[in-house]
Amino acid sequence: MQKKYLLIYEEIAQQIREGHFHPKTILPSENEFADRYQTSRETIRKALNLLAQNGFIQKIRGKGSLVLDLKRHQFPISGLISFKELAKNMGGKTKTTVDGFVLEQAGTDIAKELNIVNEELVWKVKRVRHIDEERVILDKDFIVEKQVPGLSRQKCQNSIFEYIEQELKKQISFAKKEFTVEEPNEEDRELLDMEGFHAIVIVKNYIYFADATLFQYTESRHRPDKFRFVDFARRMDSQKK
């Protein structure tokens, strides 16, 4: 016999799929669900945890369980795509604002990430991505100036990748990515609409030209409710033997 929390999970998940609980609304409380299903709060808590793990809800401290939009924008893990390219497929209103733009010496920490000397000049760019009039992504870009000369605030607001490929005629080839989930810091809360959210998805990108030259390090900080990070994996033939 299937455990009760699994049955409750499946029923609530189906109700979310069918639109009974709308995106951006708060689910009934644990007590309300416990009364409705004639069970304990612990059983309800297990069902809600499973809903959160499978992307149906986001638990918000002090508010409850926020229903997520199952049509959230897909962000390809293995792909290398600019926000401008991603925005074309989103359908909603998008905008980029440049909060910081400066050319200065890399410094110890950034030099280490880019594998350059501390004194080398680096473009340091801070961009906020708006989706449906909400500030949901903070991109912090560090770009080696000698590899990408002539960058400007306007080009950053439009698309850095587009400038590199169309104006500098350089081929962007691949990236190494690292994913972590952390608590938002003071800068996240200042520049993003983080009210009620107590986690942020951080994607670190190390981006290379076709000749394997590392030219950009980006720390992209995402509010967790707007995106699904997706990938396609294939089992290697050698593992089947």
TrEMBL record:
What keywords tag this UniProt record?
A: DNA-binding, Repressor, Transcription, Transcription regulation
Pfam families xrefs: GntR, UTRA
What region holds the HTH gntR-type domain?
2-70
Give the record's GO biological process terms.
Answer: negative regulation of DNA-templated transcription
Protein name stated in the entry: Trehalose operon repressor
Q: Name one GO molecular function term.
A: DNA-binding transcription factor activity
Q: Which CDD domains match?
A: WHTH_GntR (cd07377)
Provide the organism lineage as a comma list. Bacteria, Bacillati, Bacillota, Bacilli, Bacillales
Entries under SMART domains matching the protein: HTH_GNTR (SM00345), UTRA (SM00866)
Source organism of the structure: Mesobacillus subterraneus
